[in-house]
From TrEMBL:
Enzyme class: transferase
EC number(s) given by UniProt: 2.7.13.3
Source taxonomy: Bacteria, Bacillati, Bacillota, Bacilli, Lactobacillales
Name of the molecule in the record: Signal transduction histidine-protein kinase ArlS
One cellular component (GO) term of this entry: membrane
Domain HAMP, first and last residues per copy: 218-272
Length: 506
């Protein structure tokens, strides 16, 4: 079993490191692939531009040569070609055949430059015999009737060849062929230099991409690692106060951290409520259960033969059973009051209509009491509160007012609005026994009773006012109490008003 647990832990660690390594390599791959594509496009563009430039130079040179050679009548010869390209002699009149014929001096000035880097010129007569060359290297010669650049093999790799036929401008006779060859020496040297630079830069880029990728992945994985650590801490201890740092930036990780923190807070709040519920119920049920148990034991011993003991025990047991039912119901109400924002956040209620209806009901239940209502609003007022919850609040307060008013049986209810109509104020005043200053600060504590004996006789559990406070605060309201012994008590309730036109009554 221990080995299995260790294996699971190791698997978790391996999984985390594997994800980090995978993402690091993926980031490296993406960065390096982007760099490679960019380098490939850049190199191809550079090669294409260079080839276009070399081709243009070849065409310009061939045109210049063809222009010079086409200005005579007879096919090209070695002597005439050499004379014309190397040391041209200027003549003003016609030259007898078979000598070279020159018409104008401008045809030869300036001399043709055949010394450009990588350029080789070869001249052929009409019979395709080589009669002139600037380099002795052998290249393939393919005569063509039209000007065309072809790729051939050269000493440095790929080379370019341009073969142009030469026709006389006087009789359109074929005089020979001019072949211009570009060995692309500079092209290949520069291309190799660029490739080497790209490789070096690529290695550097790979190193930097691995570093940058690792940093990026760490920045992405760190929040997930923190989340995992926090979850493991919560898993080990549900009361752990470990929370995620939400940060200042409003990004996905901040939202994740905020959601997680809210979820953990809600979970711990529910767990705390559950514990308090169990503890409170266990504590409060101990007394009625003990009473019922005592009466049952007494019945078991003497009640079978004594009708009076039997009747008293059954009556007391039924009373305590009813009290336990009331206690459990109120505890459940108190527990559910903390889930308002989940189940009842969109509920709407007409508070004036509900309060007046409850006062009417209490008048029927307690005809010996006088209920006075002062409504300074005189219109419907809607609040964001579930109707049953609002009714529970008013019933608890009105019921206490009736229970503890023994001499002056009068309850005064006033309704007003404040804060420019944004808040409704309800005041419920009785003229009963009142509450001491010492007890006043504790009346909203669970199971607290001002007079425990009297509260027990009246069926009180000490949960009514805590439920009132919890319900009102869950809906954004407030409750305040002021009291004086033997003069009575005033409960003041405040709730925010909502627009009745856009929110129908619940």
């Amino acid at each position: 079993m221990i080995k299995l647990l260790n294996r699971k832990k190791n698997r978790k660690k391996e999984t985390g490191s594997t994800v980090r390594v995978r993402w690091t390599f993926l980031t490296m791959g993406v960065i390096f692939l982007t760099f490679s594509i960019f380098s490939y496009i850049l190199l191809n563009t550079f090669q294409r531009v260079m080839l276009d430039n070399e081709t243009d130079e070849m065409r310009n040179l061939s045109e210049e040569l063809v222009t010079r050679f086409s200005n005579h009548y007879y096919p090209l010869t070695e002597e005439a070609t050499t004379s014309m390209l190397d040391e041209p002699e200027i003549e003003t009149g016609p030259i007898p055949a078979p000598q070279f014929r020159i018409e104008k001096r401008e045809e030869f000035a300036p001399p043709v430059s055949l010394t450009k880097g990588g350029i080789i010129v070869k001249v052929y007569n009409p019979d395709e015999d080589l009669i002139y060359q600037t380099d002795t290297q052998s290249f393939r010669f393919l005569p063509s009737k039209e000007e065309r650049v072809t790729e051939i093999s050269g000493p440095y790799g790929k080379a370019l060849s341009l073969v142009v036929p030469v026709h006389s401008t006087y009789n359109n006779r074929l005089l020979g062929y001019v072949q211009v060859i570009q060995t692309l020496k500079g092209y290949h040297e520069m291309t190799n230099d660029i490739r080497q630079s790209i490789i070096i830069i690529g290695i550097i880029a790979l190193i930097f991409s691995s570093i940058i990728g690792g940093l990026l992945i760490n920045s992405f994985v760190r929040p997930i690692t923190n989340l995992t650590t926090a979850m493991e801490s919560i898993q080990k201890n549900l009361d752990s106060d470990v929370r995620l740092n939400e940060g200042d930036k409003n990004n996905e990780f901040s939202k994740l951290a905020r959601t997680y923190n809210e979820m953990v807070d809600l979970m711990q709040k529910n767990i705390t409520n559950q514990r308090e519920f169990v503890e409170d119920v266990s504590h409060e049920l101990r007394t009625p259960v003990a009473i019922v148990e005592g009466h049952l034991k007494m019945l078991d011993r003497w009640g079978k033969e004594d009708p009076q003991i039997l009747e008293e025990s059954i009556s007391a047991s039924l009373t305590e059973t009813q009290r336990m039912k009331t206690l459990v119901k109120e505890m459940l109400d108190l527990s559910r009051a903390k889930e308002i924002d989940v189940y009842y956040k969109n509920e709407r209620t007409n508070i004036i209509q509900l309060l007046k209806q409850l006062v009417t009901n209490f008048r029927m239940l307690y005809p010996d009491f006088q209920f006075i209502v002062d409504d300074d609003v005189n219109e419907d007022v809607f609040v964001n509160m579930y109707r049953n919850h609002l009714e529970q609040v008013f019933v608890n307060i009105l019921d206490n007012a009736v229970k503890y008013s023994t001499d002056r049986k009068e309850v005064h209810v006033s309704i007003s609005s404040s804060k420019e109509g944004e808040q409704v104020d309800i005041a419920i005043q009785d003229y009963g026994s009142g509450i001491s200053e010492e007890d006043l600060s504790k009346i909203f504590n669970r199971f607290y009773r001002v007079d425990k004996a009297r509260s027990r006789e009246k069926g009180g559990t000490g949960l009514g006012l805590p439920i009132v406070k919890e319900l009102l605060e869950s809906y954004g309201g407030q409750v305040h109490v002021s009291s004086q012994l033997d003069y009575g008590t005033i409960f003041r309730i405040q709730l925010p008003i909502i627009d009745k036109e856009t929110t129908p009554e619940a």
